[in-house]
Structure to design on (98 residues):
């Protein structure tokens, strides 16, 4: 599961700026355009879904909305790890219809 590193601002090829939410999973750092992030929440209880694909950790209830939690380590072919106090859930903006 992701651990947040820091925010970053990078220059685009067209001379503009792109603000990223930077996180690490495994030993790698990744960035997501901040405009694609609805919010970042602390790890919470995740309800497992029977017979779901191995990369789906389960679902959470976020203020009445059901959110699917995906294990990025598994999706990216990395070793899955347990969460700790620094682990966060990054809620992708396009996943929530509000």
């Amino acid at each position: 599961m992701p651990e947040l590193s820091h925010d970053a601002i990078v220059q685009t090829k067209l001379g503009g700026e792109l603000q990223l939410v930077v996180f690490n999973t495994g030993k790698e750092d990744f960035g997501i355009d901040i405009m694609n992030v609805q919010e970042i929440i602390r790890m919470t209880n995740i309800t497992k879904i029977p017979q779901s694909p191995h990369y789906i950790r389960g679902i959470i209830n976020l203020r009445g909305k059901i959110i699917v939690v995906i294990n990025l380590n598994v999706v990216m072919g990395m070793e899955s790890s347990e969460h700790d106090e620094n682990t966060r859930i990054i809620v992708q903006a396009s996943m929530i219809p509000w």
Remarks:
- The radius of gyration is 14 Å.
- The first strand starts at residue 3 and ends at 11.
